[in-house]
Fold this sequence. Notes:
By secondary structure, this protein is mainly α. The chain has one domain (6-168): Globins (Globin-like), CATH 1.10.490. Helices cover 69% and strands 5% of the residues. It has 8 helices and 2 strands. The chain has helices spanning 6-18, 21-35, 47-62, 77-92, 97-114, 121-139, 149-152, 154-168; strands at residues 65-69, 72-75. The chain has a two-stranded antiparallel ribbon. α2 packs across α5 and α5 runs parallel beside α8 (154-168). The N and C termini lie far apart (32 Å).
Amino acid sequence: MENLTSNQVAALKKSLRQLDTEKLAGEFYETLFTRFPQVKPMFPTDMKELGIKLMSVFELVIYSFEEKSHNQFSLQDTLIKPMQELGKQHEAKGVVPEHYTIANNLLLEVLVKQNKATFSAEVETSWKLALEHLTVAMLSRNDDKALLPATEHTLRDTFHSIMKKVLRK
């Protein structure tokens, strides 16, 4: 898994500050449940609270990247255990690795749609890497930090087609 650079971490933080997080979370869940109605029972009914939790996790993750070696940033070690626990909670509700891929791609799609003017290639790459780090942390178990095959290439390979679709609208 690729680490982030200081420029990518800065781009993430700037991007997060520019977001209408309530609108982003609302559109994310609305689109998710429209396209994949079978996952709706996995979620609580209070969408506002769910959106706040989602954006809080993203904010926590984005502000938890630390420099591990020269200009190489990854999640703080202290964040891995709580993200593993969050992953276990998701698993208990029936979430499987493929769902992370769907959610990450959908989130990227909504981010692009809401931020066409400011969503540069650097911001795109930064978000993809951050989501990959989050996914790996949530899917890892104890000392197992290997990236699960279901999530390995999907963010890199599918984002361009999503971006093309969104930009055509």
